[in-house]
Design goal:
Layout: H1 21-36, E1 44-45, H2 47-54, H3 58-70, E2 74-77, E3 81-84, H4 89-105, H5 107-113, H6 116-134, H7 138-154, H8 162-179, H9 186-191, H10 194-201, H11 205-217
Antiparallel strand pairs: 1-3, 2-3
């Protein structure tokens, strides 16, 4: 499929803002560095150093670090400071299985509530993934990839479960990126979502469940094998 460049969606369009603008910007910058491995697992972080580096107050840094702690991307311990969270295969494997259970168990609710707005939102996120892949921007691709899956699950109307999926997604993507082979086919990552969207448009629950389950199990085709299924895309 051709890359569509008309979408104007940005990272901020799919990232909820719950803090100040400066704190949110710092959160996004640090999240990107952690996911891409610029900040290494278990690396120590200090509020003073980050405040100097990003030319902001320590209060702004503290707010951003609190959000990162909520996402499990940093560990903040009393009297021991803040470190980047580790990125172990056992955690990634467990979260992968949790993610598959969450995303695939409630697709009847998703399809029952699906409408033209959901289809349009998912199509916009797909196009944003394509544009990021075209630009070689793996982090931005991961942002819109996660946004696609969150928006799909949002239709299930299970708001207490949605944060669990959010955590699974960010850590699955982080593990994949940190351990993947170089020169991955980013466009293929985006296009893997096309059959999922097509099945939703057809309102075919069983096909959607099969496709999504396979999609999640084979996310590791682009990184280490965590699925223990022997499947390949």
């Amino acid at each position: 499929m051709a890359v569509e460049s008309f979408t104007s969606m940005t990272v901020s369009d799919v990232t909820p803002r719950r803090t100040s603008k400066r704190s949110h910007a710092l959160f996004e910058a640090l999240e990107k560095e952690i996911v891409l491995g610029t900040l290494k697992p278990e690396q120590a972080l200090t509020e003073m150093d980050l405040a100097q580096r990003f030319e902001c107050s320590q209060g702004t840094v503290r707010e951003a670090l609190m959000r990162l702690n909520e996402e499990g991307l940093v560990n903040r311990l009393p009297n021991r400071g803040t470190t980047v969270a580790p990125c172990h295969a056992d955690d990634a494997r467990a979260l992968l299985h949790v993610r598959r259970e969450v995303e695939c168990s409630y697709l009847d609710r998703v399809v029952a509530r699906a409408d033209a707005m959901l289809e349009r939102d998912l199509h916009d996120r797909l196009n944003a993934m394509r544009n990021a892949a075209r630009d070689g921007d793996e982090y931005r691709l991961s942002v819109f990839d996660r946004a696609f899956h969150r928006r799909l699950f949002e239709a299930a109307d299970l708001p207490l479960v949605a944060p669990i999926l959010t955590r699974c997604l960010i850590h699955n993507h982080r593990f994949k990126i940190l351990n993947a082979q170089p020169n991955r086919e980013l466009e293929a990552t985006a296009e893997r979502h096309v059959p999922i969207l097509d099945a939703l448009v057809e309102r075919d629950v069983e096909t959607l469940r099969e496709l999504l389950s396979h999609h999640i199990a084979t996310i590791v085709d682009f990184g280490p094998d965590l699925s223990n299924t022997g499947e390949s895309a």
